[in-house]
Amino acid sequence: MMEQVPGTLGTSASLALHLGQTIFSSASLLFMCLDVEFYSYTSFSYLVTVMGLVTPWSVSLALVDAYSVFIKRLPRQPRVLLIVIVGDWALSFLSLAAACSTASVTSLLVDVGKSNCPSKLCSRYQLSAAMAFLSWFLSFSSTLLNLWLLPSL
Amino acid sequence: MMEQVPGTLGTSASLALHLGQTIFSSASLLFMCLDVEFYSYTSFSYLVTVMGLVTPWSVSLALVDAYSVFIKRLPRQPRVLLIVIVGDWALSFLSLAAACSTASVTSLLVDVGKSNCPSKLCSRYQLSAAMAFLSWFLSFSSTLLNLWLLPSL
User: Fold this and answer.
1) Does residue A1 form part of some domain?
2) Which residue out of A39, A44, A101, A144 would a mutagenesis test of the B interface target, given it has the greatest number of B Cβ atoms within 10 Å?
3) Total structural domains within chain A
4) Which ipTM value was assigned to this complex?
5) DSSP code of A3?
């Protein structure tokens, strides 16, 4: 039962996925939070909340992967894998929702109110939404790859 | 191989799911389209596009289900099941994205511009977003139930 499916928990592909997820989600968080008053719009606060959940989750999974790749191979437990799949799944839905809300609100702000949105701020919102989409994509592929493995356990 | 998992294609539970999906997606489409100029906002046009895809898809699946339940049991083919799973999957993501965008834009319109959004229009937007969320939920559960069956084929 120790065949190596690439992308499942504890492999180097999974380490790369989770590192990318960490980078994108924290970039999205920073673009949205730093020096911007994001809390006047509901969607932006929601994005900050979700990315604040995604970042520690992907950091801890990346740590587990790094331990398993570099130090000592961990035995594969179905219960742990199930928790990882469900968590990734829920967070991928939440981050898709947050990314869509942010993108649509930003596009509305660009269209309607020039006064609400100086061009510098608006491009930061757009960058933040793009990073959230990338983070969603990575966590979704991680879910799919782990789900692939589940029936074989 | 003819055990009856409830909710998979061709059972009465699946018929109920797809009928509900048809009702909710067409309700969302009607609330958004009828007598409203939806095309001035990107998210609303997107919602109309996605719901215009979801409605015929769920109608055709409901017809397949009804044929299988009431007239003649169809043999289960892995290829057809795979197409149904992938289609449901993609449409569930699209409708989640559309529902989130519509909800966030509506909430922004309610907050910011009273002049842009008379209260009657705004409640219709909100109803449309709620219907889109319900339609997403049904198509997502249909995906999950069919996915459950796939490894046994």
Assistant:
1) no
2) A101
3) 1
4) 0.71
5) -
